[in-house]
Write a structure and sequence with these properties.
Blueprint lengths: L2 H25 L17 E4 L4 E7 L3 H4 L11 E10 L5 E2 L4 E5 L5 E2 L4 H9 L23 H10 L5 E2 L3 E10 L9 E5 L12 E4 L3
Antiparallel strand pairs: 1-2, 2-3, 3-8, 4-7, 5-6, 5-9, 9-10
């Protein structure tokens, strides 16, 4: 084989490898929401058997779980919680006005952060979206939020307004808790309505004893 031809093949091979590596880097960390199982199969759940509705909360507070996201939420003081609502009844339920709060052991009530709160924190790590009950040191992580990170946050956030009969809806809420322990914490859920518009009894989901 002629030297020029060998050089051409070598260059083509290098270019192909570079293109393949770039494609893999672009797709390897694409966000894929976890498959939701029935809420009552999760360790932290509240099952209203009479109303045939169960709600679960699965904190993503370990390094293995955190790998789901390209954003290091813990480093920015946020706790992602996978929220699962299962309707085993024969009528739809409405969660358009659902109210979710994380209650810490010292009774602090933390509402989920909005997308804008998260964008602000990621863009400016020194900005807090809520006053912290204790001083929490945070790393000074610099850098603007990317479109991919925005898309990841939008696609992962819980957004369902209703749950049809015999189905499950899921998504993430992000709580600004810093380094506060989840020991003794629970999640309160109100604003779940049946098909007639009557609010169901509130749900209380213990996270960790």
């Amino acid at each position: 084989m002629q030297p020029v031809m060998k050089l051409g093949l070598r260059r083509a091979s290098v270019v192909l490898c570079a293109i393949t590596a770039l494609a893999l880097s672009l797709t390897a960390k694409d966000f894929v929401k976890p498959t939701a199982h029935p809420a009552k199969t999760y360790p932290a759940h509240d099952d209203h058997t009479d109303e045939k509705v169960a709600i679960a909360a699965d904190p993503y507070d370990t390094p293995d779980k955190a790998k789901l996201f390209s954003v290091n939420f813990h480093e920015h003081g946020f706790l992602p919680v996978f929220f699962i609502v299962t309707n085993d009844g024969d009528q739809p339920i409405s969660i358009a006005n659902v109210d979710v709060k994380l209650i810490t052991a010292n009774r602090s009530r933390i509402t989920p952060a909005s997308s804008e709160d998260i964008y602000r924190r990621l863009s400016n790590p020194q900005a807090a979206t809520r006053p912290s009950p204790i001083p929490i040191p945070r790393k000074n992580v610099k850098g603007a939020i990317t479109q991919k990170e925005r898309d990841e946050i939008e696609s992962s956030t819980f957004a369902a307004k209703a749950v049809e009969p015999h189905t499950t809806q899921s998504g993430f809420f992000f709580f600004d808790i810093g380094d506060i322990s989840l020991a003794g914490a629970h999640i309160d859920v109100t604003g779940v309505n049946d098909a007639k518009g009557t609010e169901l009894m509130y749900f209380e989901i213990p996270l960790k004893e």
